Amino acid sequence: MPAVFWEILLELRSYAALWAIVVIAAMAVTAVALYVFWDLVGRGISLIARVLNAGQPRRH
Amino acid sequence: MPVNRGGTEVYFPIADVTVSPLLLALLGIVVGTMTGFFGVGGGFLITGGLLVLGVPTIYAVGTGLLMVMGTAITSTLRHRRLGNVDLRLAVLIVCGTIPGVFLGERVNSALEQAGISGPVVGAVYFVLLLSLGSLMVANWLRRLRYRPRQALGGGLPGWFHAVRLGPSRLLLPGIGEVNLRPEFPNAGIAEMSALVPVSTGLVIGFVAALLGAGGGFLLMPFLVYGLGVPPAVAIGTDLFQIIITGTLGSFLYSLSGNVDPMIAVIMFAAASVGTQIGALATRFVNSQRILGLFGLTVLNAGVAVGIGQLARFIGSDTLALVGQLLLLGVSGLVALTIVSLLVIAVIAQVRRGRRLARLREIRSAGRVAAGGD
Question: B310: how many CB neighbours lie within 10 A of its CB?
Fold first, then answer.
């Protein structure tokens, strides 16, 4: 991580309320982003599986 | 400023601690696998693990809560379609959780100012994890030996459902009569005093904010063993409560500057990989069958925290390393068991599929031959 990044974080930390909001928002955004990422990975795998099974006869 | 102290260790200036990001990621993956599989936040492991890794107590608690919040959001998003939440029960629990979290954070800050936060949190953790772990393992072993048909927790749910706290009905001007002994349909409870979930929430919120956990490791067993809620509904209701505890707790700890978001993000990103593995495993392996493994993990976390506290007290690096290895080792083994069971189940399913396909081919070949005759 670049030193300037840590400097910004440490500076931001002195503004208690702003820091708390930024921390919560950052974690919430990370959580949603990771959920979307893994959802897309899952959909991608399903799509590949469907494409690979396209030529096969259907099970009854 | 951040300094790479050689090898794999990195200095985190906010928490003022030098930790290996690889160990943080490893802890994250283990916690994620357990979260995805057992449906609890894993806060007891995160904070316990951070304590063992040498992160100062107040930062371990605050950072643990932040990570629990993230994990709960992702899990709830994934479980949103399942409908495994008893909203009435969850809202009543949250009513008690909110004041409990405020109280817990205040007490922890006061303990920190008095310079005894570390030993007190460590001791509470040690006692809670040890007793809860023993209870879960004992219950699991008893069920394995006798295979009883009775509900989980024996007669406890009946007692909690029947307990009378205050009046059954309350007349509010302008609103009318309010039933204080409502039904909880999703949880399968015909009637219970509303004060039971409210007081449960108060205790859970207090302990969660004091220890830096979402409270899932306490609430989930209480809902299942204490109130007789079906495990699937207990997980959903528990997750709803964890979002509130996690967000409120991490906000309060962030206000005091006692949260390291970088440590949380590293662990959370790693945990998301584990969560996918754990969640996938639930499709193939029945988590109820190995609930004892979860109890064993809780028990082991208690022992590891105890060893870690003792190591700090006597200043022994070797003992601290033993605690670290024990926590990560046993939790890692449980996570590895889950992965192995998943792999075995997937292989068995693939083989079954191939056998069925071969059988179908033989049958169709037989039909063609019969038609030819």
Answer: 16
Q: Which residue has the tokens 């959802």?
A: A39
Residue showing tokens 């309060």? B252
Interface of A with B in 3-22 (CB under 8 A): 3, 6-7, 9-10, 13, 16-17, 19-20
In degrees, rounded to 5, the angle at the alpha carbon of residue B247 between the alpha carbons of residues A34 and A7 is 75
Q: Are A39 and B272 in contact (CB under 8 A)?
A: no
- For the whole model, what pTM was predicted? 0.73
Min Cα separation B89/chain A (Å): 25
Chain mean position to CA B165: 29
- pLDDT, average across residues B307-325: 81
Helix, strand, coil abundance in chain A, percent, nearest 5: 80, 0, 20
| Contact (Cβ atoms closer than 8 angstroms) between residue B196 and residue B46 | no
Rounded Cα distance, B251 and B238, in Å = 20
* CA separation for the pair A51, A18 (Å, rounded): 48
A1 or B292: which carries more pLDDT confidence?
B292
ipTM over 0.90: no
Q: How far apart are CA B31 and CA B124, in angstroms?
A: 21
Mean pLDDT value of segment B342-363: 86
